[in-house]
Amino acid sequence: MSPPVAIKSADFWVKVVEMLQQNWALIDIEAVGSVRVFFINDTSGLFDEMEFPSVDAAERALERNGFRRFAASADLQSFLHTPSAPFQRTAHPNGPIYSSGRFWRS
Description:
By secondary structure, the protein is mostly beta strands.
């Protein structure tokens, strides 16, 4: 088992992929002035990550790719539950689906 990944943010974004499956994202500000988006599955497995120049750029990219801010949607909150820490690195069956660009619109 890999060591837990510390993520400071708790402001989840979510993309409903199919029935009973969601991909979650957390935006963390890094010390060097950029931000990193961590992509997490329903079982707290961190399966991909991407770097952006700012929080605003990360949020726009998430929205462009079908993610919604969880806290802004009472509807989503009524039936979904966010994954909980600790987050562990895990492999996605299709590899790094977002950072590879296969399922990501720039």
